[in-house]
Amino acid sequence: MWDKIYYLIMIPMVYIAFATFIGGLIIKFIIVFRSKKLTGSYAIYPKSKYPLAAAIGESVIVPTAFKKQKLFWLMIIAFHIAFFLLFIGHLELIREFKILQIIPHDVFLGGGIVGIVLIVSVLYFLFRRFKSPWREISVPEDYVLLILLFLTFIFGSHMSLASRYGIAGFDISVEAYRQYLSSLFTTSPAISQGILASPHYVLVVLHIFFANLFLMVFPFSKMIHSVFIFIAQFIKRK
After folding, report:
1. Residue range 153-193, pLDDT digits in tens
2. Minimum mean pLDDT among 46-55, 57-66, 200-209: which range?
3. What are the helix (H) ranges across 62-112?
4. Which of 107, 140, 144, 238 is deepest in the core (most CB within 10 A)?
């Protein structure tokens, strides 16, 4: 029975999660661009000569947060950098990209620090919402999303650290992950034998399960603002 559940989580649910994520984003874009235009001007002055660069800077570096709350800003920057490195690591888990190996390194980058930074920053964002005034403007989905992120990162970080440092005999190789993930992208899904035969199989399943849930919930949450923030900043500056 468990084998069937694991299969459902690692293959059909992955496709459903990505379909829901992409479909949800499309729906949100349609709703936003078909909504009534607000009257008045929301332009930011003085106007920048390079609105695209200014919008990217505001979205990524978040100078407004730096002015108001330094620790919050630091956690945002740490999360952005770590998440970018995590994204690169997952690309390398699909297949090897020579351009990403200009400086030879093990997958993942950071020797386990990336996962720890993500866990710490998400815990900060979560517990910050228990404090006023953020508690009053938070809704249940805010906590659910952060908890799903935390669980996704904790299991992923555990696997990365265990694999890199040989903790508890962790025996799932990068090649085993590549076989599984590449099969998903080529629409010929199969769980590699290297994962199936491992006693740590359940950790992979839990990591993927919580990641799937996050992807399915994300487009319908307030966190969707992270997708629109660059567009909004660019419109204000153009």
Report:
1. 999 998 888 887 777 677 788 899 999 999 999 989 999 99
2. 46-55
3. 63-68, 70-94
4. 107
Q: How far apart are CA 42 and CA 44, in angstroms?
A: 7
DSSP-based three-state secondary structure for 82: helix
Tell me, what amino acid is at 228?
Answer: F
Please enumerate in sequence order all residues whose Cβ is within 8 A of that of 106, keeping only pairs 6 or more positions apart, or say none: 164
- Residue ranges per structural domain of the chain: 2-39+70-227
177 class by beta-carbon count within 10 Å (0-12 exposed, 13-18 middle, 19+ buried): buried
Q: Is the dihedral of CA 136, 142, 143, 149 positive or negative?
A: negative
Residue 150 preceded by cis peptide, ω within 30: no
Residue 8 pLDDT exceeds 90:
yes
In CATH, what is the architecture of 2-39+70-227?
Answer: Up-down Bundle (1.20)
43: left (phi over 0), alpha (psi -120 to 50) or beta: beta
CA distance 91 to 19: 19
Select, from the ranges 7-11, 24-28, 87-91, 128-132, the one with the highest average predicted confidence (pLDDT). Answer: 7-11
How many distinct helices (H) and strands (E) make up the chain? Answer: 12, 0
